[in-house]
Design brief:
mainly beta, eleven-stranded mixed sheet, 1 helix, about 5% helix, about 40% strand
Amino acid sequence: MHNLLILTLAAVLLAALNAVRAGEPNPTAAPKIERDKEGLVRLTAEPGMEIRYWLTGPEATPSSVRYTAPFHLELGGTVKALAIAPDGSGRTLDEKAVASAEFPPLEGAQPHPPAAQPTFHEAGWHDFKLEPFVPVKRTSDDFPLSDQENKGGWVKYEPMSDEFNGDKLDEAKWWPFNPTWKGRYPGLFRKENVTVSGGQLHLTMKKEPIPETETDKKYKDYTCAAVQSKDTVRYGYFEVRSRAMKSAGSSSFWFYLQSKPWWTEIDVYEIGGKAPGKERNHHITMHFWHSPVADKHWQVGSHFLAPANLCDDYHVFGVEWSETELKFFFDGRLVRRGPNTDWHQPQTLNFDSETMPDWFGMPKDEDLPSTFSIDYVRAWKRK
């Protein structure tokens, strides 16, 4: 056993050494924070990593800032920073990835006007009513529906794309459940409710007994489904063609990563296909849960009123997520846009159905089972 442990440790160290030799980011490295005697702060990380930082104190930043050059910190305060690896690297952010350094004021530093306060979260967001609504006509599957001439210079990003051909889920890309959450009470996620057939992914909600092996008794009478990407992604264009389930169970497409030190969420759509009064609502919501310097939840959201009930037909939903802005599309038309103030965290891509008793109401027995169907998910990155 002792020899096996030594061999295992040697293999881990060798793999890390080979990764460094190959120029790959160290998966546990935090940035280095230094300030010189003139008050100039320098942040460094391994090649290929992006650094984002927060300041607290007299010169506090309202959210994370991308580090591009040294900056002055004369009045003192705390600098927190983390390094983000490129998509596909497999690096996971955790508390060990956060660097923190506290600096006193420089001798003789003079207070200057207070830093700008964060704007109200709704600032800069705009909804588009689009009446009468005319969907975009597709001429190519190679590009987003909203950009058929590819003026954005989009290139397909295969790790987050799937046409769902075949008869089973590609488990190299997807979990047939949510690895960190069992569902919203009383509906329990079950991998048996995730199927692939007819070139589509299907997530089904049922009224049925909960398996006896489930010890959490708050799950009762309803099962539903979730699919989550095994990799994380940040920025790009993401498009889904889908049809919401014909019940008050939710049909959702969203991004998130519940972690420390950072937890944010982008809900591209949440739909209650037969939720009374909400059958046409394409709900779009942005959540902030916590970061290395803030732990108060807030959200900003709205909904687009679709021209027809969303469980009656397939529609194309898209989100363009960049460092500066978020744009949401319905059948190729821009329906909501706003500034990207806080959504810079690599996140998982998710589909799920949930019971939402306090929002959509519980589904009627006669509407179950009901199925949320996804024809495809396609992703692109800029050239």
